[in-house]
């Protein structure tokens, strides 16, 4: 075996060992902290207490894990499959892509937690509904990443295949698929935790089985040890599914030398379109949503309990504009405070990983564990610790936003063309100058992470307003569902959509200006 192969094998072995050691140290520090501080179990159970809760409720927990895992698996398969097929269709037709892509983006901006009760009312608290919610969350990142990969094909490769008159299938098999596979796996890894979140949201709202239902029961009984045990199981499901995807990615070596960077890159989507076209097709997407809405109220008159007419929603907004304005300001305030905390934490972690690569195996397990833990699962814990308060809301939003920024910062701060690095070396540039250059090239990628964090933050702030905070658009949406006032619910959703569209669109414009 060559020296290089030995080094790579040693590196591959050392990373999981370092990660395992970091987890063991983390658990040991947790146990020591609970023993030394004497904190009550109701606030922070020790690892021994959590293990005891797992053993004491083993039979019931096994049933909950099996049921929730089954739902997650079905939703994940449906979302991944439909996402890849949709991306393939959009890649084959530019007109279809321009028409459908803005529609997908418009739908994604609305937090699923805000429309989840509507789906439950429309389709019932059934297995189909829970699978649908998992598929909705899973579908979008897979479709976007797959489309990015299918369109990010070097022109010289396509020209070469055309010069030898290769068939369409051979072009797909030997060019587009090899280039797309890294992006597909990136999208699937991003989507995998979302499948867990979709099912748990449904189980939180309407289910008598599963880990989501069990978490609510434990929180209501203030059984924090059992609550932690169930959260550990949820993290275990997410990590297991994430690990399967990562293992499949390592096994499928379609294009090792492609050099395709996927995930947070901002420049290689292949879907760039002149601004007028984007505006036109964006307007058409909004018109399509409105047409479907009106058509649903006309063709399905029995849906008035959960699908009001647009005129009724507009009348609700017009009658009490102050109510919705105050709620929007309250939601935006919680989002801004939580995002600032999450961005600070995520940016710091990303910078440490970028400038100290050896810290990556240590930080990796905790980052992935935090990512696969749905934000909604943290709500009962924060409710036990801090009660209904602004602090709980800020913490929940920070949990929802820090991960995309951490990954984007770690990726962006290591994005520096080799030519520029060599040039800096040749002139002996000082360290501060190198840092400025890295920041310059990394900023567009960081902004891309900010876009993802804003979408996650909107979901987090709605969850916070449902469980651990007062006021805001989330409260109006929840009140409308509880009091059977669909016009109020949809008016709140419309405000959330407008807020998300402004934040996401403004950040996108900033990203385009910074994308050099």
Work out the number of β strands: 0
Structural class: mainly alpha
Spatial gap, N to C terminus: 43 Å
* Percentage of residues in helical conformation: over 70%
Identify the overall geometry: globular
CATH third-level topology of the largest domain: MetI-like fold
- Largest beta-sheet details: none
Mean pLDDT: 77
How many discrete structural domains?
Answer: 2
Number of helices: 20
The amount of beta strand, in percent, is under 5%
> CATH superfamily of the largest domain, called what?
MetI-like
Supply the CATH class of the largest domain.
Answer: Mainly Alpha
Order of helices and strands: HHHHHHHHHHHHHHHHHHHH
Oligomer status: single chain
Low-confidence stretches: 254-273
Q: Specify Rg, calculated over alpha carbons.
A: 24 Å
Architecture of the largest domain, according to CATH?
Orthogonal Bundle
Structure description:
The chain is built from 20 helices and no strands. It has helices spanning 3-37, 47-56, 58-92, 94-109, 112-123, 127-151, 155-163, 168-205, 210-220, 224-251, 275-299, 310-319, 321-355, 360-372, 375-386, 390-412, 418-426, 431-467, 473-482, 486-514. The chain has 2 domains: 37-272, MetI-like fold; 308-516, MetI-like fold, CATH 1.10.3720. The two termini are 43 Å apart. By secondary structure, it is mainly alpha-helical.
């Amino acid at each position: 075996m060559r020296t290089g192969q030995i080094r790579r094998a040693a590196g591959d072995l050392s990373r999981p060992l370092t990660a395992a050691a970091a987890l063991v140290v983390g658990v040991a520090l947790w146990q020591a902290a609970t023993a030394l501080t004497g904190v009550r179990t109701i606030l922070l159970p020790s690892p021994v207490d959590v293990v005891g809760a797992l053993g004491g409720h083993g039979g019931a927990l096994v049933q909950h894990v099996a049921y929730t895992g089954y739902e997650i698996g079905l939703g994940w398969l449906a979302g991944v499959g439909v996402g890849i097929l949709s991306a393939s269709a959009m890649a084959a037709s530019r007109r279809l892509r321009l028409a459908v892509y803005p529609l997908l983006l418009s739908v994604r901006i609305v937090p699923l937690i805000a429309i989840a009760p509507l789906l439950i009312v429309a389709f019932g608290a059934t297995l189909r509904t829970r699978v649908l919610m998992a598929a909705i969350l899973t579908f979008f990142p897979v479709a976007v990443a797959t489309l990015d990969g299918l369109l990010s094909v070097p022109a010289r490769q396509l020209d070469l295949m055309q010069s030898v008159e290769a068939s369409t299938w051979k072009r797909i098999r030997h060019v587009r698929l090899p280039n797309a596979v890294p992006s597909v796996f990136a999208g699937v890894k991003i989507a995998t935790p979302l499948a867990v979140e979709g099912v748990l949201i449904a189980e939180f709202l309407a289910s008598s089985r599963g880990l989501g239902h069990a978490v609510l029961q434990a929180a209501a009984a203030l059984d924090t040890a059992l609550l932690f045990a169930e959260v550990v199981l949820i993290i275990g499901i997410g990590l297991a599914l994430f690990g399967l995807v990562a293992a499949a990615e390592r096994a499928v070596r379609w294009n090792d030398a492609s050099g395709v960077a996927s995930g947070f890159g901002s420049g290689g989507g292949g879907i760039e379109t002149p601004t007028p076209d984007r505006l036109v097709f964006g307007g058409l997407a909004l018109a399509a949503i409105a047409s479907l809405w009106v058509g649903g109220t006309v063709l399905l008159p029995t849906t008035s309990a959960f699908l009001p007419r647009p005129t009724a929603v507009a009348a609700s907004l017009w009658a009490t504009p102050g109510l919705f304005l105050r709620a929007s300001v309250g939601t935006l305030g919680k989002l801004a405070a939580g995002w600032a905390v999450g961005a600070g934490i995520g940016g710091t972690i990303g910078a440490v990983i970028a400038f100290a690569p050896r810290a990556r195996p240590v930080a990796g397990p905790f980052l992935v564990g935090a990512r696969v833990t749905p934000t909604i699962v943290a709500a009962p814990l924060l409710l036990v610790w801090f009660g209904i308060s602004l602090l709980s809301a800020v913490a929940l939003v920070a949990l929802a936003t820090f991960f995309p920024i951490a990954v984007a910062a770690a990726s962006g701060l290591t994005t520096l063309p080799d030519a520029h690095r060599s040039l800096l070396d040749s002139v002996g540039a000082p360290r501060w100058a190198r840092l400025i250059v890295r920041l310059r090239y990394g900023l567009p990628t960081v902004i891309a992470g900010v876009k993802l964090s804003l979408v996650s933050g909107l979901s987090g702030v709605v969850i916070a307003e449902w469980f651990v905070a007062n006021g805001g658009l989330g409260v109006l949406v929840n009140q409308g569902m509880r009091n059977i006032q669909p016009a109020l619910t949809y008016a709140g959703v419309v405000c959330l959509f407008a807020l998300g569209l402004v934040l996401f669109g403004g950040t996108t414009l900033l990203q385009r200006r910074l994308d050099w």
